[in-house]
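Appendix B. Chain record.
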Amino acid sequence: MGLSAHQLDQTDQSVLTRSVFNSNQHAPESVVDTWRAWLAAIGVAVANGIAFGTAYTFGTFFDSMSQEFNADRTSTSIIFAFTLLLFFGFGAISGPLSDKIGPIPLLLAGAWLFVAGLLLTSIVDRLWIGYVTYGVGVGLGSGCFVAPLTGTVGSLFAKRRAAALGVVATGNGLGTLILIPLAENLIANHGWRTAYQALAAIGAAGFTFALFTVIRQPARPASAGRPVATSEFASNPLFQRLFVSALLMSIGLFSAFAFIVPFATDNGISKQTAAFVMSVIGLSSIVGRLALTSLAASLGGVRLYQLMLVFQPIAYVVWLLADSSVPTLIVFALLLGTTYGGFVAISPEVAITLFGLANVGRLMGLLFLAFGIGGLIGPPAASAISENSGQTSVIISVIVVVIAALIASIGLNKQPV
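Structure tokens predicted for this chain:
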């Protein structure tokens, strides 16, 4: 059955500040909204940033790995698809598990898998072995801790939760911006195998720092609500709207990411300029992740979430009108980066606002699952549309999908806690 309004109302933020903590398993009450909580947010930003940044560097390894193993790019790209499936999808398992055992064992397991996977990938002599070592190492390793750590940060804050989750999301963006050019430089100067070894060393250092900063989730009293099964969330109309809106937004976003560079080059724009447009998206997404979350206190998380979905179709319309105009493409990049960054940062806050903290791990896991499914559907669907109808049809389809995401989100403000 679905969650009742009474059960939802029992999970408001004031419960957290009145919580009784179990000293054997959880952080002391004084941790909530303190410098120790902020230190944990920074540690999580580092760990998650390394996970996202390393996963997204795989595109820089395509050519080198394909040439060495005499494989086409499609075969090599399967590694990345498999990695994303585990990266986002495993949150549906690790999230609920963190509600029971806490995030630290999951971070330890994930860090071990992550570092070992990169080191093993650096010595593979067959491509299919790389499917396993990289996919399981980076994908499953990251899937063990990304959603649980995000949920942990949400549980450590009451007054400044949106801002803290914005810091975590900013770490994801910074990790991507820093590690992708670093990987490119390492591959050019030392080869792809050495580059993976360097990323493994960076991961080991970053995860060690995170382990010393992360605090176990504070316990909630019985009044915070009972554990809720995934099936109950799935049958709740409010959660369905949240899940579907996140899923549709992700389909549009990942479709766009797959076609921004080809769109630019097909219109006579150089690869260097196209790469610059992608950099603008990345930089502006950091602004959206960090700055826009500060508006949550005045607008409310749900309203801000919906506002990001209002502006994303506008960004894609600008893209549709850009043709070969670089200034117009930059305007598009600024709009898309800011709005998608704000969306990603505010989504966990919205989930906690609507459903409380009693099942925060499961919530984050299911939310990441929506992003993962969107990532799996978007690029292949966009590729099929492009082959049959052209890239303009891809942009129009993205606009339609994101408008549908906005429509799905409209009812989210009716039953907030």
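Further analysis of this model is presented in Appendix C.
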